[in-house]
Design brief:
The complex is a heterodimer of chains A (about 150) and B (about 110). Chain A is mainly alpha-helical and about 150 residues long. Chain A has five helices and no strands. Classes of the chains: A mainly alpha (about 150), B mainly alpha (about 110).
Chain lengths: ~150, ~110
Amino acid sequence: MSAPELIDPKPRIRSGRTRRKAERWSWMFMRLSGLVLVLLIFTHLTVNLVLGEGVSQIDFAFVAGKWADWWWQVADFLMLLLAMLHGGNGMRLLINDYAHSKAWRSALMGVLHLSMVVVIVLGSLVIWTFDPCPVDADMSLLPSFCEDVLQ
Amino acid sequence: MWLVHRSTGVAIFFFLLIHVLDTALVRVSPEAYNEVIGAYKTPVYGLVEAGLVAAIILHAFNGLRIIAVDNSTWALRHQKKLAWGVWIVFAVLMLGFLPRHLMHVFGGA
Protein backbone atom coordinates (compact mmCIF):
# COMPACT_ATOMS: atom_id res chain seq x y z
CA MET A 1 0.00 0.00 0.00
CA SER A 2 1.33 3.43 -0.84
CA ALA A 3 0.43 6.91 0.25
CA PRO A 4 -1.92 8.72 -2.11
CA GLU A 5 -0.25 11.02 -4.58
CA LEU A 6 -0.54 14.63 -3.42
CA ILE A 7 -1.67 17.07 -6.06
CA ASP A 8 -0.57 20.68 -5.86
CA PRO A 9 -3.54 22.87 -4.93
CA LYS A 10 -4.56 25.30 -7.62
CA PRO A 11 -2.73 28.61 -7.21
CA ARG A 12 -5.04 30.91 -5.32
CA ILE A 13 -5.74 34.34 -6.68
CA ARG A 14 -7.77 35.65 -3.75
CA SER A 15 -5.89 37.79 -1.24
CA GLY A 16 -2.97 37.69 -3.66
CA ARG A 17 -1.61 34.65 -1.88
CA THR A 18 0.26 33.40 -4.93
CA ARG A 19 3.63 34.96 -4.15
CA ARG A 20 4.44 32.54 -1.38
CA LYS A 21 7.49 34.22 0.11
CA ALA A 22 6.01 37.72 0.11
CA GLU A 23 2.78 36.47 1.62
CA ARG A 24 4.68 34.61 4.30
CA TRP A 25 6.38 37.88 5.22
CA SER A 26 3.04 39.64 5.23
CA TRP A 27 1.63 36.92 7.52
CA MET A 28 4.55 37.22 9.95
CA PHE A 29 4.48 41.01 9.87
CA MET A 30 0.77 41.19 10.73
CA ARG A 31 1.33 39.05 13.82
CA LEU A 32 4.52 40.74 15.05
CA SER A 33 3.34 44.30 14.40
CA GLY A 34 -0.03 43.36 15.91
CA LEU A 35 1.62 42.37 19.19
CA VAL A 36 3.63 45.61 19.36
CA LEU A 37 0.59 47.69 18.38
CA VAL A 38 -1.51 46.17 21.17
CA LEU A 39 1.03 47.51 23.70
CA LEU A 40 1.49 50.90 22.01
CA ILE A 41 -2.20 51.61 21.38
CA PHE A 42 -3.46 50.53 24.80
CA THR A 43 -0.80 52.77 26.39
CA HIS A 44 -1.89 55.59 24.04
CA LEU A 45 -5.59 55.14 24.92
CA THR A 46 -4.91 54.84 28.66
CA VAL A 47 -2.75 57.96 28.85
CA ASN A 48 -4.94 60.08 26.53
CA LEU A 49 -8.49 58.92 27.31
CA VAL A 50 -8.51 57.30 30.76
CA LEU A 51 -5.90 58.92 33.01
CA GLY A 52 -6.20 62.56 34.05
CA GLU A 53 -9.29 64.22 32.65
CA GLY A 54 -9.67 61.87 29.68
CA VAL A 55 -10.60 63.37 26.34
CA SER A 56 -11.31 66.81 27.84
CA GLN A 57 -7.62 67.28 28.71
CA ILE A 58 -6.44 67.00 25.11
CA ASP A 59 -5.30 70.28 23.58
CA PHE A 60 -2.12 71.75 22.10
CA ALA A 61 -0.46 72.05 25.51
CA PHE A 62 -1.19 68.37 26.26
CA VAL A 63 0.39 67.18 22.99
CA ALA A 64 3.33 69.57 23.41
CA GLY A 65 3.90 68.31 26.95
CA LYS A 66 4.13 64.73 25.65
CA TRP A 67 6.29 65.39 22.58
CA ALA A 68 8.73 67.48 24.60
CA ASP A 69 9.99 64.05 25.74
CA TRP A 70 11.81 62.10 23.06
CA TRP A 71 10.41 58.76 24.21
CA TRP A 72 6.86 59.85 23.38
CA GLN A 73 8.12 60.96 19.96
CA VAL A 74 9.69 57.55 19.41
CA ALA A 75 6.60 55.69 20.70
CA ASP A 76 4.20 57.75 18.56
CA PHE A 77 6.43 57.46 15.47
CA LEU A 78 6.61 53.68 15.91
CA MET A 79 2.84 53.56 16.40
CA LEU A 80 2.24 55.66 13.25
CA LEU A 81 4.56 53.53 11.13
CA LEU A 82 3.41 50.10 12.34
CA ALA A 83 -0.28 51.05 12.36
CA MET A 84 -0.17 52.39 8.80
CA LEU A 85 1.75 49.35 7.51
CA HIS A 86 -0.47 46.91 9.43
CA GLY A 87 -3.67 48.68 8.37
CA GLY A 88 -2.45 49.22 4.81
CA ASN A 89 -1.52 45.56 4.45
CA GLY A 90 -4.91 44.59 5.83
CA MET A 91 -6.65 46.85 3.30
CA ARG A 92 -4.53 45.30 0.53
CA LEU A 93 -5.86 41.86 1.48
CA LEU A 94 -9.43 43.16 1.44
CA ILE A 95 -8.97 44.83 -1.96
CA ASN A 96 -7.60 41.54 -3.32
CA ASP A 97 -10.61 39.71 -1.89
CA TYR A 98 -13.40 42.03 -2.97
CA ALA A 99 -12.28 44.09 -5.97
CA HIS A 100 -12.87 41.66 -8.81
CA SER A 101 -12.33 43.79 -11.88
CA LYS A 102 -8.78 44.66 -12.80
CA ALA A 103 -9.54 48.37 -13.17
CA TRP A 104 -11.11 48.62 -9.72
CA ARG A 105 -8.29 46.69 -8.17
CA SER A 106 -5.52 48.88 -9.54
CA ALA A 107 -7.47 52.09 -8.83
CA LEU A 108 -8.04 51.11 -5.19
CA MET A 109 -4.44 49.93 -4.81
CA GLY A 110 -3.25 53.27 -6.17
CA VAL A 111 -5.38 55.23 -3.70
CA LEU A 112 -4.27 52.96 -0.86
CA HIS A 113 -0.57 53.31 -1.59
CA LEU A 114 -0.84 57.06 -2.08
CA SER A 115 -2.71 57.57 1.19
CA MET A 116 -0.22 55.39 3.07
CA VAL A 117 2.76 57.37 1.76
CA VAL A 118 1.10 60.74 2.43
CA VAL A 119 0.04 59.84 5.98
CA ILE A 120 3.37 58.25 6.97
CA VAL A 121 5.44 61.13 5.55
CA LEU A 122 3.15 63.85 6.93
CA GLY A 123 2.89 62.18 10.36
CA SER A 124 6.65 61.64 10.63
CA LEU A 125 7.36 65.27 9.70
CA VAL A 126 4.85 66.47 12.31
CA ILE A 127 6.35 64.32 15.06
CA TRP A 128 10.01 65.11 14.32
CA THR A 129 9.76 68.81 13.43
CA PHE A 130 7.32 69.61 16.24
CA ASP A 131 7.96 72.80 18.22
CA PRO A 132 6.19 72.82 21.61
CA CYS A 133 6.76 76.57 22.02
CA PRO A 134 6.09 78.40 18.70
CA VAL A 135 7.45 81.93 19.05
CA ASP A 136 4.44 83.89 17.79
CA ALA A 137 1.78 81.81 19.60
CA ASP A 138 -0.64 82.83 22.34
CA MET A 139 1.18 82.03 25.60
CA SER A 140 -1.97 80.80 27.34
CA LEU A 141 -2.31 77.93 24.86
CA LEU A 142 1.23 76.64 25.36
CA PRO A 143 2.54 74.20 27.99
CA SER A 144 3.73 75.93 31.16
CA PHE A 145 7.44 75.17 30.56
CA CYS A 146 7.37 77.47 27.50
CA GLU A 147 7.53 80.48 29.82
CA ASP A 148 11.12 79.63 30.67
CA VAL A 149 12.03 78.74 27.09
CA LEU A 150 10.61 81.89 25.46
CA GLN A 151 11.88 84.40 28.03
CA MET B 1 -15.22 36.56 14.29
CA TRP B 2 -13.75 36.73 10.79
CA LEU B 3 -16.27 39.42 9.85
CA VAL B 4 -15.74 41.27 13.15
CA HIS B 5 -12.00 41.36 12.52
CA ARG B 6 -12.40 42.67 8.97
CA SER B 7 -15.00 45.32 9.72
CA THR B 8 -13.28 46.66 12.86
CA GLY B 9 -9.99 46.69 10.93
CA VAL B 10 -11.44 48.83 8.15
CA ALA B 11 -13.07 51.23 10.63
CA ILE B 12 -9.82 51.66 12.57
CA PHE B 13 -7.85 52.20 9.35
CA PHE B 14 -10.08 55.07 8.21
CA PHE B 15 -10.05 56.65 11.65
CA LEU B 16 -6.25 56.45 11.63
CA LEU B 17 -6.10 58.45 8.37
CA ILE B 18 -8.29 61.19 9.87
CA HIS B 19 -6.51 61.09 13.22
CA VAL B 20 -3.06 61.69 11.67
CA LEU B 21 -4.47 64.60 9.64
CA ASP B 22 -6.11 66.28 12.66
CA THR B 23 -2.99 65.80 14.78
CA ALA B 24 -0.94 67.36 11.97
CA LEU B 25 -2.68 70.65 12.82
CA VAL B 26 -0.33 71.01 15.83
CA ARG B 27 2.19 72.05 13.18
CA VAL B 28 -0.15 74.78 11.87
CA SER B 29 -0.97 76.61 15.10
CA PRO B 30 -2.15 75.88 18.66
CA GLU B 31 -5.45 77.63 17.81
CA ALA B 32 -6.14 75.47 14.75
CA TYR B 33 -5.41 72.26 16.65
CA ASN B 34 -7.48 73.20 19.70
CA GLU B 35 -10.44 74.14 17.56
CA VAL B 36 -10.52 70.88 15.63
CA ILE B 37 -9.70 68.65 18.60
CA GLY B 38 -12.52 70.46 20.44
CA ALA B 39 -14.91 68.62 18.12
CA TYR B 40 -13.77 65.32 19.67
CA LYS B 41 -15.15 66.51 22.99
CA THR B 42 -18.72 67.01 21.72
CA PRO B 43 -21.33 64.32 22.56
CA VAL B 44 -21.59 63.00 18.99
CA TYR B 45 -17.84 62.49 18.63
CA GLY B 46 -17.70 61.22 22.21
CA LEU B 47 -19.97 58.36 21.18
CA VAL B 48 -18.03 57.75 17.96
CA GLU B 49 -14.85 57.56 20.05
CA ALA B 50 -16.49 55.04 22.35
CA GLY B 51 -17.32 52.96 19.27
CA LEU B 52 -13.76 53.31 18.07
CA VAL B 53 -12.35 52.12 21.40
CA ALA B 54 -14.78 49.18 21.22
CA ALA B 55 -13.53 48.34 17.71
CA ILE B 56 -9.89 48.54 18.84
CA ILE B 57 -10.47 46.27 21.86
CA LEU B 58 -12.26 43.66 19.71
CA HIS B 59 -9.65 43.78 16.95
CA ALA B 60 -6.75 43.62 19.44
CA PHE B 61 -7.99 40.68 21.49
CA ASN B 62 -9.31 38.77 18.50
CA GLY B 63 -5.88 39.31 16.93
CA LEU B 64 -4.24 37.82 20.01
CA ARG B 65 -6.64 34.87 19.75
CA ILE B 66 -5.62 34.35 16.12
CA ILE B 67 -1.92 34.37 17.08
CA ALA B 68 -2.61 31.88 19.88
CA VAL B 69 -4.61 29.54 17.62
CA ASP B 70 -1.87 29.69 14.96
CA ASN B 71 0.86 28.82 17.42
CA SER B 72 -0.51 26.35 19.92
CA THR B 73 -2.55 23.20 19.53
CA TRP B 74 -4.01 23.79 22.98
CA ALA B 75 -5.43 27.13 21.79
CA LEU B 76 -6.63 25.46 18.58
CA ARG B 77 -8.54 22.85 20.58
CA HIS B 78 -10.05 25.53 22.81
CA GLN B 79 -10.56 28.16 20.14
CA LYS B 80 -14.31 28.37 20.73
CA LYS B 81 -13.76 29.16 24.40
CA LEU B 82 -11.10 31.68 23.43
CA ALA B 83 -13.58 33.42 21.12
CA TRP B 84 -15.93 33.73 24.09
CA GLY B 85 -12.96 35.01 26.08
CA VAL B 86 -12.52 37.84 23.55
CA TRP B 87 -16.12 38.95 24.14
CA ILE B 88 -15.74 38.70 27.92
CA VAL B 89 -12.53 40.78 27.95
CA PHE B 90 -14.29 43.23 25.61
CA ALA B 91 -17.28 43.52 27.99
CA VAL B 92 -15.09 44.00 31.08
CA LEU B 93 -12.87 46.65 29.48
CA MET B 94 -15.83 48.54 28.03
CA LEU B 95 -17.60 48.50 31.39
CA GLY B 96 -14.47 50.06 32.89
CA PHE B 97 -13.95 52.57 30.10
CA LEU B 98 -17.48 53.73 29.20
CA PRO B 99 -18.60 55.34 32.50
CA ARG B 100 -15.34 57.25 32.80
CA HIS B 101 -15.31 58.36 29.17
CA LEU B 102 -19.00 59.37 29.11
CA MET B 103 -18.47 61.37 32.30
CA HIS B 104 -15.70 63.30 30.56
CA VAL B 105 -17.82 63.83 27.45
CA PHE B 106 -21.18 64.65 29.06
CA GLY B 107 -20.16 65.81 32.54
CA GLY B 108 -18.00 68.62 31.24
CA ALA B 109 -15.32 67.55 33.73
